[in-house]
């Protein structure tokens, strides 16, 4: 049984080849693993865009005039999530720049699939109240990210 209802919109050409050629299946595999690990369920929307689109969103919603790799828009920021036995809560939206993912995968020397998954997990954890504003939060969040990625076979190169 899926823990998440995931709507994926891909506004760019999907860059991954088999076995990750289907954006919906790829995003579901990654986010289901993250949801299972942190014990949440709910609804998530994912938008895959280019640098121009994420730049505009970053400028509009964060007042930062440059592209970024991932943005998260939690639906219930600062509000306790619904009881897990109740109807699935709407967790929010994740926006990933495929252009940034390409660039960062090359810079970090790992696969594009790994970078895309990293950004999805990072955004998903933000939707669920995790942050990296201080050293302890960063250790926890980045440790969870690595654990989730290792669990789906996407280790650092």
TrEMBL record:
**Positions contributing to Zn(2+) binding:** 122, 126, 132
Q: Which Pfam families match?
A: YbeY
Name the InterPro entries on file.
MetalPrtase_cat_dom_sf_prd, YbeY, YbeY_CS
The places in or outside the cell where this protein is found are: Cytoplasm
Q: Identify the cofactor(s).
A: Zn(2+)
Q: Does the keyword Hydrolase apply?
A: yes
EC number, UniProt record: 3.1.-.-
UniProt main location, coarse: cytoplasm
User: How many cofactors are bound and how?
Assistant: Binds 1 zinc ion.
| UniProt KW keywords | Cytoplasm, Endonuclease, Hydrolase, Metal-binding, Nuclease, Ribosome biogenesis, rRNA processing, Zinc
Keyword field contains Transport: no
Q: Which NCBIfam families does the entry mention?
A: rRNA maturation RNase YbeY (TIGR00043)
Report the sequence similarity comment from the record: Belongs to the endoribonuclease YbeY family.
According to its UniProt entry, the function of this protein is described as: Single strand-specific metallo-endoribonuclease involved in late-stage 70S ribosome quality control and in maturation of the 3' terminus of the 16S rRNA.
**Protein's UniProt name:** Endoribonuclease YbeY
Q: What is the lineage of its organism?
A: Bacteria, Bacillati, Bacillota, Bacilli, Bacillales
């Amino acid at each position: 049984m899926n823990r998440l209802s995931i709507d994926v919109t891909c506004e760019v050409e999907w860059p991954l080849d088999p076995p990750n050629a289907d954006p919906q299946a790829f995003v579901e595999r990654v986010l289901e693993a993250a949801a299972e690990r942190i014990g949440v369920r709910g609804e998530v929307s994912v938008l895959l865009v280019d640098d121009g689109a994420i730049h505009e969103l970053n400028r509009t919603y964060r007042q930062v005039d440059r592209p970024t790799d991932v943005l998260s828009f939690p639906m219930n920021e600062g509000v306790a999530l619904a009881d897990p036995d109740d109807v699935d809560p709407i967790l929010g939206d994740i926006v990933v720049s495929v252009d940034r993912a390409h660039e960062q995968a090359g810079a970090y020397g790992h696969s594009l699939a790994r970078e895309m998954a990293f950004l999805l997990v990072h955004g998903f954890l933000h939707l669920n109240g995790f942050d990296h504003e201080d050293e302890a939060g960063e250790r926890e969040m980045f440790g969870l990210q690595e654990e989730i990625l290792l669990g789906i076979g996407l280790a650092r190169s």
